[in-house]
Specification:
The complex is a heterotrimer of chains A (294), B (594) and C (375).
Chain A: H1 2-35, H2 42-59, H3 64-87, H4 95-117, E1 132-135, E2 138-141, H5 142-164, H6 166-176, H7 178-183, H8 188-214, H9 220-235, H10 240-260, H11 266-280
Antiparallel strand pairs in A: 1-2
Chain B: H1 7-26, H2 31-56, H3 64-81, H4 86-106, H5 113-133, H6 135-138, E1 144-145, E2 151-152, E3 155-156, H7 160-180, H8 185-195, H9 197-203, H10 207-233, E4 235-236, H11 243-256, H12 261-278, H13 287-290, H14 292-306, H15 310-322, E5 348-359, E6 362-373, E7 377-381, H16 388-396, E8 403-408, E9 411-412, H17 418-423, E10 426-428, H18 441-449, H19 460-473, H20 489-502, E11 507-511, H21 519-534, E12 538-542, H22 546-552, E13 555-560, E14 563-568, H23 570-575, H24 577-584
Parallel strand pairs in B: 7-12, 7-13, 10-11, 11-12
Antiparallel strand pairs in B: 1-4, 2-3, 5-6, 5-8, 8-9, 13-14
Chain C: H1 2-17, E1 25-32, H2 39-58, E2 66-73, H3 78-91, E3 94-98, H4 103-116, E4 120-122, E5 137-142, H5 144-158, E6 164-169, H6 172-187, E7 194-198, H7 206-215, E8 219-223, H8 227-239, E9 245-248, H9 255-261, E10 269-272, H10 280-293, H11 299-318, H12 323-331, E11 334-337, E12 342-344, E13 350-352, E14 354-361, E15 364-372
Parallel strand pairs in C: 1-2, 1-3, 3-4, 4-5, 5-13, 6-7, 6-8, 8-9, 9-10
Antiparallel strand pairs in C: 10-14, 11-12, 14-15
The chains are: A mainly alpha (294), B alpha/beta (594), C alpha/beta (375).
């Protein structure tokens, strides 16, 4: 009995962590699809969202929801800046310069925030007013429940947005074939800017939601982003459902392995899982094999 | 020749190079300065590895600090825990790193680009975790102190200055080696992979092996740097070898200029020195020191946007502005191109048997049989989406067939990789020219000449002669030293053909070779094709231009919807009602496959 | 008149501090973490040292000269520390150095210090640091053999608990502390029921908490390095219903950790070498620090405050800046009351031999008792 409760508890926190990875991974995937570039500053989007929330909610004392919306608006503006500062000047170059440029952006963002906000991590209130509930010996943290629900909701929203709205379809067309989209009169640059905005907002939401659990700190995004990136590869590079499933899977693998194998090597399991996937199923769970055309 | 350095530049370089390590001897400098030198020199060696893997081969490596660490821990564990001689420990560490580099390189088998970034980061992170947590072996986060220094030929290097001199000499030797590398066979292969991996593979470069070697070399150089570092500082701990350090190596490489060892060294010195210089800022500018790392991040973005070739690239471009290089090359004494092919019994050089290629449910090539006779020009035509290019891709090995066989000269090559087929004498050109844009015309063609089994003498001279002959054959010998990016379209097309011819092909595959040429160029091209046929070369080509196809072909095969609908002599085929119908579109207008 | 003169002197000193190079001063180096992941602590250390500097100079400096602090950033890394030390030594004229608070950094720099032969005050608590044949390292904090002995003594003798779980970070500080605590408990006849490590910056402690639960421990001894880890662990510990007592190394009662964890850390005991309301000296210091920086004082600042004052005292006693003379003077300091406790230096260079036990009472640190050892 105790064995079962323990593993259910581990499973729950694994899913909670996993949905954080999934949320960040979703932001990754959208940018990969739109620009074919991995954004190494994706984790810092979450960090910025967290700090914006701390500023508006704790610092300026705005009501929770107003502060939340304020943080998301700030992230939207940031998305525009990021697009024009980091991606746009390099849009005609190969993936490597862009990748390195986002890496530079990550260093820049972390240290700028360090300078402005100082090195102390900041606490953040939970969305709900209770700590959690205990079900059959398993404690369910209210914030993890919120994150799980929010992830499902955002995935659903993203799906509707891309499949059911004209703007979403234009975005899809852009991500599939930029030249064709251009011929059809779709403003490609604008579509990519919108993708960055959306991705930055998603990152911001992740930061605000994770803040109460992991606290808001300079490095909060880095390790999450690495795992989220691993999740996108495990799920299938550039695949939305893959990102979600990959994220959840990774969270669960990590927690179970930490419980049953060794705690200090917890961070290694994600990367080990990634290695195994890359060796035996490099296209990921949902990915298809693609070869370059001559 | 990118590697030519003018005499004055050489002298200046030599003077600086000799003067630098002597500074500690001449001037009275503190241990601190010596240590800064030591750091710069050992880091620079690791950065040379980045030059090879990133600059030459175009592969991202975010684990250079881990290789650096393997070298350092090799020396530390060997001398402190194992009580082994310094040089043996160094060899062990470097060996371990090289093996790790080989293994990482092997993952590029199926994965490039982003995957590689992630794989190397993962390796870096796991390495870091092991250093910290496997306390019994690595001494954990405490690190290892009391690392000894070696003696060399009975000469003790315990003194800081003497040891620094040793490190500097090693650095110079390695800079020279890395500088020399691009003009070797391997170096050209690396650069061709960087410029266009697919074309490199098709031309005959074993791209996987090239990338694996690049990774192994990078790891090797990283480990040498790390081993010397460990000896220099006598103490190492895991935080010397984390992800942040890998990013630092990357930044140094990019800042200095990834494509040259000199750039790498310049970049390293700047990265090591920059925080020092910032400390001397006046009070009013002190805040820059506080945001140093932020500025550093911003710098990375700015380099990517404005200074992609780094500082060394800037210097090179400035030099190019002032020093006029001779655009024309002396072509006297170029030997005529030999293209003769030994025939075997079978008369069909290429035989496609019930060849199929499906993409999911789409049957792009749906069971075709074609015999290409030795010494003939055989054209494959058909409307858009009829499966022509797919067929050609299956023949050259870019796609594996779903079913059926590709038989070359009696041998089933269906499962061979493109470079293996190139090694058996299959050469091809691409519809949208795929040259190695930043290499010279001569270097492009030399890559073609260095395919496996090319029947020419060994050595660089033979390669060069062969390449010059090929360029001369297409009338481009006088432009041999021009970077192909700067050539007009028509000339690029000719260089691409010379690249194939230098490989002495049995079978020449031409993918819409006349696309984008004007009328005059087309006329010249027809002449070239006729000359090639006159040499007895077997050619299998695709083109849209019926006039051209009719003029040069001995035989034509027509495809529609992935199936063969007609075959025969040009005049006969072009009058075939099915063919006319297919071209006029009565048979349907949907595109099956692009 | 005399008061005015002193005031003028202080003002002059302040004005000259900007262009201090030309001034004849006694220079003391401060190697701290001004940038990098631990920059938080670096700021506090500098604050504490500055406060002592102003006091010493206001009281006339040392040997009739002003004291000057030369700051050197170690970027929170080991190689950075080695470079910072050799830079300070290389500049010449440095009489003495206040080193970092992290043990690994000191370990890295120790050979450099030994070679230079210049007295260095350290805040790292790894017991071995003062015992590795380095005569020039002095510690202005109690070392971990005492922290673990205090934790063990308080848990076993005061709280009367026998079933111990030890939770530690796998870094040098955590592993060293774990070893020392295991030894200290053994001396009291207790074998821990669980010893569990984790890697810094873990996002989840569920497996650790479950292991504690399973072990049936009734008291937790901890050596955790980072505040967010303390916060996450504390929350999950209480969420999963573990009610065991908790006696932790100083990191559980830092300001940041208590802010992050909130009620989850209430009732937890921590040990602290510095507690604002432990003694008259510490009370006075706390008031001054709060007035100056509008921040609550903690160990990162207090140890540096003491370290600089110990050095000034030693230089004045020695009446010389000669390293041997300073060393002799430091080792001779007995019964000197600093803000961290009463200093009795031994030949190894260890000044303090005990800790305060404090308790987090609804978010406020309350002083419980001071435990000192003779040996």
């Amino acid at each position: 009995m105790q064995f079962i409760t323990e593993n259910l508890q581990i499973l729950f926190t694994g899913l909670g962590l996993g949905s954080i990875y999934a949320l960040v991974a979703l932001g990754f995937v959208l940018i990969i699809r739109a620009t074919n570039v991995v954004n190494f500053a994706q984790g810092d989007f979450a960090m910025l969202g967290g700090y914006a929330m701390v500023l508006f909610f704790t610092g300026l004392g705005w009501p929770y929801w107003i502060a939340f919306i304020g943080a998301l608006l700030a992230m939207a503006v940031f998305g525009v800046l990021f697009n024009y500062g980091v991606y746009y000047p390099l849009r005609h170059r190969s993936f490597l310069p862009v990748l390195i440029s986002t890496l530079g952006a990550s260093i820049f963002l972390q240290n700028t925030v360090l300078y402005v906000a100082g090195p102390q991590p900041k606490p953040l209130d939970k969305l709900l007013n209770f700590d959690g509930i205990t079900l059959g010996g398993v404690f369910l943290d209210s914030q993890y429940i919120v994150i799980l629900v929010a992830t499902v909701a955002l995935v659903f929203f993203t799906f509707l947005f891309f499949e059911k709205t004209l703007l979403g379809k234009k975005l899809q067309a852009t991500s599939q074939d930029k030249d064709m989209a251009r011929l059809l009169g779709i403003p490609v640059a604008l579509m990519i800017a919108i993708t960055f905005i959306y991705s930055a907002v998603l990152g911001g939401i992740a930061g605000v939601l994770v803040g109460p659990i992991l606290f808001v700190s300079i490095g909060m995004g880095s390790i999450i982003a690495l795992k989220a990136f691993a999740a996108t590869i495990i799920g299938g590079f550039g695949d939305v459902k893959g990102a979600i499933v990959g994220g959840l899977l990774l969270g669960v693998i990590e927690s179970l392995a930490a419980q049953h194998i060794s705690v200090p090597y917890k961070d290694a399991y994600a990367f080990l899982a990634l290695f195994l996937f890359l060796l035996f199923r490099p296209q990921g769970i949902f990915g298809e094999k693609v070869s370059e055309k001559a | 020749m990118q590697n030519r350095i003018s005499l004055p530049a050489l002298i200046v370089l030599a003077i600086i190079a000799i003067a630098l390590p002597l500074i500690p001897y001449q001037l009275h400098v503190s241990t601190y300065v010596v240590q800064m030198f030591m750091q710069a020199v050992t880091y620079a060696i690791a950065v040379l590895g980045m030059v090879v893997v990133l600059g030459y081969t175009g592969q991202i490596n975010l684990a250079q600090a881990a290789f650096f660490g393997l070298g350092a821990y090799g020396v530390a564990l060997g001398t402190v825990s194992g009580g082994i001689n310094f040089w043996i420990s160094l060899a062990l560490g470097v060996g371990a790193a090289t093996v790790a580099g080989l293994a990482l390189g092997l993952t590029t088998l199926r994965l490039g680009g982003h995957y590689l970034a992630m794989i190397t980061i993962s390796f870096q992170q796991i390495f870091d975790l092991i250093l910290v947590n496997w306390v019994e072996v690595t001494h954990g986060p405490d690190g290892i102190a009391g690392i000894g220094r070696p003696s060399l030929f009975g000469w003790e290097l315990a003194d800081d200055k003497a040891y620094l001199l040793l490190c500097t000499i090693v650095l110079y030797l390695l800079v020279f080696a890395v500088w020399y590398l691009p003009s070797t066979r391997l170096g050209r292969a690396m650069r061709s992979v960087r410029e266009n991996e697919l074309a490199a593979e098709v031309v005959g470069v074993h791209t996987l092996r090239t990338k694996v070697i690049a990774f192994a070399l990078s790891a090797l150089l990283g480990a040498i740097g790390g081993a010397l570092y460990a000896g220099g500082f006598a103490y190492i701990s895991p935080d010397n070898f984390n992800f942040a350090r890998s990013v630092e190596f990357l930044t140094a490489t990019l800042l200095g200029g990834a494509q040259s060892p000199f750039g790498g060294v310049i970049g390293t010195v700047l990265i090591v020195q920059l925080p020092e210089w910032l400390k001397h800022l006046p009070e009013s500018l002190r805040f820059i020191k506080d945001v140093y790392l932020a500025v550093y991040g911003l710098g990375v973005i700015l380099i990517m946007v404005f200074l992609y070739e780094g500082i060394w690239g800037l210097i090179k471009n400035l030099r190019a502005k002032f020093v006029k290089s001779q655009a024309k090359t002396d072509v006297s004494g170029v030997q005529p191109l030999v293209l003769d092919v030994q025939g075997s019994g079978d008369s069909a050089l290429l035989r496609l048997e019930n060849l199929q290629k499906h993409f999911g449910g789409l049957k792009a090539v749906d069971g075709i049989d074609i015999d290409v006779q030795r010494g003939t020009v055989h054209a494959l035509i058909g409307p858009n989406g009829s499966g022509k290019t797919t067929s050609l891709n299956v023949v050259s090995g870019i796609y594996r067939p779903t079913g059926g066989k590709v038989i070359l000269d009696g041998e089933d090559v269906s499962q061979l990789k493109p470079h293996q087929r190139a090694g058996r004498g299959v050469g091809r050109t691409f519809q949208n020219i795929r040259l190695f844009a930043s290499l010279s015309a001569l270097e492009n063609v030399m890559v073609g000449a260095q395919r496996d089994n090319n029947p020419i003498p060994k050595g660089d001279k033979a390669l060069r002669d062969r390449a010059m002959s090929a360029l001369h054959f297409v009338g481009m010998a006088d432009r041999a030293h021009v970077i192909v990016r700067n050539l007009p379209y028509g000339h690029q097309r000719l260089v691409e053909i010379a690249r194939v011819l230098a490989g002495h092909p049995k079978l020449l595959l031409l993918d819409e070779p006349a696309a984008g040429l004007n009328q005059t160029e087309k006329m010249e091209f027809v002449e070239l094709l006729k000359r090639l046929r006159g040499h007895g070369l077997t050619i299998f080509l695709i083109d849209h231009d019926m006039g051209l196809v009719e003029k040069v072909s001995d035989r034509i095969t027509v495809l529609n919807f992935g199936r063969k609908i007609a075959e025969g002599a040009p005049a006969e085929v072009l009058r075939n009602p099915d063919v006319i119908a297919a071209y006029l579109g009565t048979a349907g207008e949907t595109n099956a496959a692009a | 008149m005399r008061r005015y003169a002193r005031f003028a002197a202080a003002a002059l000193a302040a004005a000259l501090a900007v262009c201090a190079h030309a001034q004849d001063t006694v220079k003391i180096g401060l190697v701290n973490e001004a940038t990098g992941p631990n920059a938080e602590a670096g700021v506090y250390t500098h604050n504490g040292a500055k406060l002592a500097l102003e006091e010493i100079n206001a009281a006339g400096g040392v040997l009739g000269k002003k004291l000057e602090l030369k700051l050197e950033d170690n970027q929170s890394t080991n190689p950075g520390t080695v470079l910072a030390f050799s830079k300070l030594f290389g500049e010449g004229g440095i009489v003495s150095i206040i080193g970092p608070i992290r043990s690994t950094q000191i370990q890295a720099a120790s050979p450099t210090v030994a070679k230079a032969g210049i007295p260095t005050m350290i805040g790292g608590t790894d017991p071995s640091l003062t015992k590795v044949n380095n005569r020039w390292v002095f510690r202005a904090r109690p070392n971990d053999s005492y922290s673990s002995r205090v934790i063990a003594d308080f848990g076993v003798n005061t709280l009367k608990k026998q079933k111990w779980a030890i939770i530690h970070s796998t870094d040098a500080f955590g592993s060293g502390g774990m070893n020392a605590l295991t030894t200290a408990l053994k001396a009291l006849g207790v074998t821990p029921v669980l010893v569990q490590g984790y890697t810094n910056n873990s996002q989840d402690f569920t497996p650790v908490v479950l292991a504690i639960k399973k072990s049936g421990a009734d008291v937790i001894g901890s050596y955790m390095t980072n505040s967010p880890d303390v916060g996450i662990f504390a929350k999950q510990l209480r969420q999963l219903g573990v009610t065991a007592e908790w006696v932790g190394s100083p990191s559980v009662v830092t300001d940041t950790a208590m802010k992050l964890a909130g009620p989850a850390l209430h009732g937890v005991y921590g040990i602290a070498d510095f507690t604002p309301d432990a003694t008259a000296e510490s009370k006075a210091y706390a008031k001054k620090y709060r007035d100056t920086y509008k921040l609550d004082p903690d160990v990162y600042s207090s140890w540096a405050y003491d370290a600089l004052r110990v050095l000034a005292l030693a230089i004045n006693t020695a009446k010389s800046t000669d390293p041997e003379a300073i060393r002799k003077a430091i080792v001779g300091i007995k019964g000197w009351k600093g803000v961290e406790g009463t200093y009795n230096f031994d030949e190894n260079g260890d000044g303090l031999r005990g800790y305060n036990v404090v308790k987090n009472e609804a978010g406020k640190v309350a002083f419980i008792k001071h435990i000192d050892f003779k040996d």
